[in-house]
Write a structure and sequence with these properties.
The complex is a heterodimer of chains A (67) and B (316).
Chain A (H helix, E strand, L loop, with lengths): L2 H10 L3 H12 L1 H23 L7 H4 L5
Helix pairs in contact in A: 1-3, 2-3
Chain B lengths: L23 E4 L9 H9 L3 E4 L15 E8 L5 E10 L6 E8 L4 E8 L4 E4 L5 E4 L5 E5 L38 E5 L3 E5 L4 E3 L4 E6 L3 E2 L2 E3 L4 E12 L7 E8 L3 E7 L9 E11 L4 E9 L5 E3 L5 E6 L2
Antiparallel strand pairs in B: 1-2, 2-5, 3-4, 4-7, 5-6, 7-8, 8-9, 10-13, 10-22, 11-21, 12-20, 14-15, 15-20, 16-19, 16-21, 16-22, 17-18, 17-20
Classes of the chains: A mainly alpha (67), B mainly beta (316).
Chain lengths: 67, 316
């Protein structure tokens, strides 16, 4: 997972690494990579707008959860 | 055999005598009459329309009356085929035959294949679709824009409709989707999970059904992007009068849905059931779990086997 993918995923999911590991475990590395790419593509525009705002928080931060 | 025709006209070609080998009928077409031998050779070098019965025992004879294949084809500029019409195959044999219409643009083949029953007819009309009729003329199989789909089996990824304004009507009285993601799971129950504000993930160890095998370890994993109806009920136990807050959440990868937040009256056994349902947007590989959080007392709150369930189905 690239840093951009991680950052985008962190906007959406609570734990990007856990999401990726679960995807690999469930679907295998190749499918998981495609699913990650599709998810990042879906959320990228919204993430870029949100992350450009002052006080931007990841989902874990928004929900006051440990990262 | 080369046909020289106006693009708007219809060409019909018939085999002149019966043949008993694997018959392949090919039409070459250009958007203008051939002007020279070189032009003719160029056309012959790139067949753009092939009809083949693919069966060695079928006889092809002059149309009409016996087995035959006829075809017409029109094309626009640059030899791009814009419409094919009047392709017909008649089978007078005692058994069905398979007929394939093959379009070849030089890089890839597109095939329309159908089994024509004994004494049946198949035709590709006005670029609209491939129809198969039985000996009485009744429709056996069709695909095309007329809505007359019958006995249709499609394999692989399939799209019905190509625009948001399109509609799909299913008139059948029985509908089944045996591979659509759907699950229902129940819990074996647990004690001392929360009460002290611990956010506890509810465990569901028994699968009542798991269509698509997307539920495991108390977690539903979306196999593809879509909208999923998810619902959860938790029959709490070990409540007492000190409880100040009970929260039930369905936590998906994309969002946390709090479906209950408050304090519900407990029964004489210090039990109470809370639940809720959501319609969640999920991406492929996203997960959904159920969490319960009770505050105001000690860690004495758990959940019962009865009515502690987690269910879901893909809606769109």
């Amino acid at each position: 997972m690239t840093q951009d993918e991680f950052d985008c995923l962190a906007y959406v999911v609570i734990d990007p690494n856990e999401w990726e590991q679960h995807a690999i475990k469930t679907f295998g590395a190749e499918k998981a990579q495609a699913m990650l790419a599709a998810k990042v593509e879906r959320w990228w525009k919204e993430f870029k707008i949100a992350s450009a705002q002052p006080g931007y928080q990841t989902r874990a931060e928004r929900e006051c959860l440990p990262t | 055999m080369i046909f020289n025709s106006n693009p708007a006209s219809k060409l019909e070609a018939f085999c002149g005598s019966a043949v008993t080998t694997d018959v392949k009928f090919t039409v070459f077409y250009a958007n203008m009459p051939p002007q020279s031998t070189a032009d003719i050779n160029k056309q012959l070098g790139t067949p753009i329309h092939t009809v083949s019965n693919g069966v060695s025992t079928v006889q092809i004879a002059p149309y009409p009356g016996q087995n035959s294949i006829s075809t017409a084809i029109t094309a626009g500029a640059n030899n791009i085929v814009q419409a094919i019409s009047g392709v017909k195959a008649h089978n007078t044999n005692a058994s069905a035959v398979t007929v394939t219409i093959q379009l070849n643009d030089g890089t890839a083949d597109i095939q329309f294949k159908a089994a024509i029953p004994a004494a049946g007819t198949g035709y590709y009309e006005n670029g609209a679709g491939w129809y198969v009729l039985d000996s009485s003329g009744a429709l056996v199989t069709a695909f095309g824009p007329d809505g007359a789909f019958r006995n249709l089996t499609v394999s692989g990824n399939t799209t019905l409709g190509d625009a948001a304004a399109d509609s799909l009507t299913i008139n059948a009285g029985v509908f089944s989707a045996p591979n659509l993601p759907a699950f229902s799971a129940s819990s074996a129950g647990a004690t001392n999970q929360t009460g002290d504000n611990t956010n506890a993930t509810v465990t569901f160890g028994t699968e009542i059904f798991d269509q698509g095998s997307n539920f495991a370890s108390s977690t539903f994993t979306a196999p593809s992007v879509g909208k999923f109806q998810l619902s959860a009920y938790v029959y709490m136990t070990g409540l007492d009068g000190s409880v100040t807050r009970e929260t039930l959440s369905i936590v998906t990868s994309n969002r946390t849905y709090t479906v209950f937040d408050g304090v519900i009256n407990r029964d004489g056994s210090n039990n109470a059931c809370i639940g809720g349902a959501i319609l969640a947007d999920m991406d492929a590989a996203d997960t959904a779990i159920v969490q319960i959080q009770v505050a105001g007392t000690t860690k004495t709150v758990g959940y019962l086997v009865t009515d502690t369930r987690f269910m879901g189905i893909q809606e769109a």
